[in-house]
Amino acid sequence: MYNLIKPLFFKYDPEVIHHKVFNWIKNVQAIPGAKQMIKATYCLEDNRLAREVFGIKFKNPVGLAAGFDKDAKLFDELGNLGFGFIEVGTITPVGQPGNDKPRMFRLVDDEALINRMGFNNEGVDEMVKRLKNRKDHSLIIGGNIGKNKVTPNDVADEDFVICFEKLFDVVDYFVVNVSSPNTPGLRDLQDKEPLKKLLFRLQTLNETKPKSKPILLKIAPDLTNEQLDDIIEIVLETKIAGVIATNTTISREGLKSNPDLVNQMGGLSGKPVKDRSTEVIRYLSQKSNKAFPIIGVGGIHSGDDAIEKLNAGASLVQIYTGFIYKGPGLVKEINKKILEKGL
Prior knowledge:
Blueprint: H1 2-9, H2 14-29, H3 34-42, E1 51-53, E2 56-58, E3 62-64, H4 75-79, E4 85-91, E5 104-107, E6 112-115, H5 124-131, E7 140-145, H6 156-167, E8 173-177, H7 192-206, E9 215-219, H8 225-238, E10 242-245, H9 259-262, E11 267-270, H10 274-287, E12 294-297, H11 303-312, E13 316-319, H12 321-326, H13 329-341
Parallel strand pairs: 3-4, 3-13, 4-7, 7-8, 8-9, 9-10, 10-12, 12-13
Antiparallel strand pairs: 1-2, 5-6, 6-11
Helix pairs in contact: 6-7, 7-8, 8-10, 10-11, 11-13
EC number: 1.3.5.2
Pathway: Pyrimidine metabolism; UMP biosynthesis via de novo pathway; orotate from (S)-dihydroorotate (quinone route): step 1/1
Catalytic activity: (S)-dihydroorotate + a quinone = orotate + a quinol
């Protein structure tokens, strides 16, 4: 079905069609009986898919990565497509428009996207209002938090703390995003000392709560092995729950698409980042002796791609670009493959 309508979708600007499809998913599921039919088509219910990771029970290990539902407007409807968890955001304390358009580019020959969205969102208060109306609490929601573009790095901690405090009662876990290439200077916060300072502050705050919530760190695929060693040290020292590997890459190695597209500024996602993402997962898992959970994301376009991430050391996986290229059937395909492999 999706392969029949995808050529029509791909005639539109990627950001324009994102909003059209977004609204279509919401409107279709408002039709009486449609939600049940969609769940019957795309959901795979099987107790063998359940996972408990960093103290949270997931009904299946396939999640939607941050960036698709930036403002938590569609999480219930997306859950009906078979996802075990949805990550909303990246959210910032104050709403911001993001970078100038066009800011998303489709590299069809590479099954990839380049984006330079720049954390466009409506602000954390609007997100909180929507998440308070959650219908399905069996669907795990993660809150991906960042800093506003105008916030200097030396006080960036404050932005993360604001988002953490406001979202604490309405999400199940947190993701600290210091790895997007589209906010100037943000990746500097991945350096050892500022990152340690930020995570210690959030974890100290977390421990003051009646019941703490998992905090994960999302990292770039462009880190060197030495930097990954630092990440392992920081995760163990700050006692955060785990790592999401990986975000988009600034590399353009081996791309086949039109140079006008390839040379666009921004983060590259999709198939070209698959191997590097898996390498990072394997390195972190082996070097840390599996000391913390890893959520694997990057270039998952098939069930076999997801199995590769799980075999490399991931406990859960997330999709985004593969969801756009392969459609919602990808979630069920991955879950079927996991059952088939007995993972």
